[in-house]
Amino acid sequence: MSDFSWLELTLLLPLLGAVIVAFIKVPAVAMRTSLGFFIATLITATAANLAFAGTKIAWLKHFAVDDLAAPMLPVLALLHLLTLLGTAKSRVSPMFCVRLLIAAFVSLAAVTCQTPWMLIALLVLGVLVPLWDLMSRRQPVRGYLIHMGLFVVLLVVGWQFAGQQVGYGLLLLALLLRGGIVPLHGWLPTLFQGAAYGTAMVFVLPLMEVLAALRLLLPSTPEWMLNAASVVCLITAVYGGGMAIVQNEVRKFFAHLCLSQTALVMFAVMLHTSNGLTSALCLWISSALSLAGLAFSVRALEARFGALSLREHHGFYEQVPGLAVCFMITGLASVGFPGTIGFVPMELLISGSADQGLGVSFILAIAAMFNGIAILRAYFALFTGKRTTTSVSLRKTPVERAGIILITLTVFLGGWFSPGVVASRHETADKLLGRTGKPAAPASRH
């Protein structure tokens, strides 16, 4: 199977799908066509992962399946598939499907990209997809443009000076901005409120800033810069969890939960130790999938009841018990509940930070506690309390049922296979830390 061009198919399928769907005018047909391409992409991405046996599977000279990319290919393909499955038919348009397919191509291409300038170009291209969505919905784009414009400038100029401290500093600042690290986080809640939920998801949840940090920064960035960034990320993790607790709108709650989880992964990267990086690679997988599952249930609720408030108790459990269960298990997985996909990564993060001092471990526990409280508060507000009655059936659709089953299997089977994933990610972490630093000569960046 390793002799077959799984990587080429994985990258070309979503791009081909976007071209084909762009000529389809009927939303239902566009959704079914896109669903077929996403399922095919998931199959080829899984095959590319299974075919990888420790040796790069290269395509051209810019893309290859390596230790970092191999497990992320099916994760990212599944993330985009869940995004489409969780989108109500009434809210699907052909252009939404096109944007989703383009976002899938950008994420999959970025994670397999081996050329720094090509990776930077893909990160810039990824910024344009939410901008396209905001403009098509006639939402304000000024704040997003300012933040992402600054991100692009810092990223490009920083790599121009790669090999010098100023270059590493600009790159680090760019990635902290892309991850929404405090105080550079204002664009993230605004994006979830203004853009389509699916568009915001596939821009935030793949955690491309983590990928860029691993490809462009480690291990050459000065230690003091990484230490300073780790402090800011730790503060953001606590801040995001605390803000998620007090939000009265579901989208803002989810945005701040994503902010906290992203900061935890970035903090693990900035530890620049073998254990810390291992936990970051594992958290990258678990956070993306668990938050995608949580968003799946939230979006299904929005499709039925419209914009949701957390100021009152809605009592939706009796009408949609499957979505309530999905919300609970994915929410608990995101904070590391035992038996779920997030348990071992969160445990690794706590133990991996032990050499940073007891205070750091305590703050990480506080951040996880805040996230857990926010999730439970949202669950009780949405699914418990008064009983509401409607004149129409609100039962799960077949697509939603398939999504819930897929999410449940992912959450619990991911926890079951965690030991093997951890061993693989530990080897990858050692390889990443053992890389030679980037030369400062311009020729080395092309």
Give a short summary of the structure:
With 446 residues, the chain is mainly alpha-helical. The chain has 18 helices and two strands. It has helices spanning 6-21, 27-51, 72-85, 94-112, 116-136, 142-160, 165-178, 187-194, 197-204, 208-217, 223-246, 250-270, 274-305, 321-334, 343-352, 358-383, 398-416, 418-433; strands at 57-59, 63-65.
The overall number of domains is: 1
Low-confidence stretches: 436-446
Distance separating the two termini: 32 Å
The side-by-side strand order for the widest beta sheet comes to 1-2
Strand content: under 5%
Helix content: over 70%
> How would a textbook summarize the main sheet?
2 strands, antiparallel
Gyration radius, in Å:
21 Å
Oligomer: single chain
- Shape verdict: globular
Query: Structural class, from secondary structure content?
Result: mainly alpha
Number of helices: 18
Helix-strand pattern: HHEEHHHHHHHHHHHHHHHH
What integer is the average pLDDT? 87
**How many β strands by DSSP?**
2
Write the layout of secondary structure elements.
Blueprint: H1 6-21, H2 27-51, E1 57-59, E2 63-65, H3 72-85, H4 94-112, H5 116-136, H6 142-160, H7 165-178, H8 187-194, H9 197-204, H10 208-217, H11 223-246, H12 250-270, H13 274-305, H14 321-334, H15 343-352, H16 358-383, H17 398-416, H18 418-433
Antiparallel strand pairs: 1-2
Helix pairs in contact: 1-2, 1-4, 2-3, 2-4, 3-4, 3-13, 4-5, 4-9, 5-6, 5-10, 6-7, 7-10, 7-11, 8-9, 8-12, 11-12, 11-16, 12-13, 12-16, 13-14, 13-15, 13-17, 13-18, 14-16, 14-17
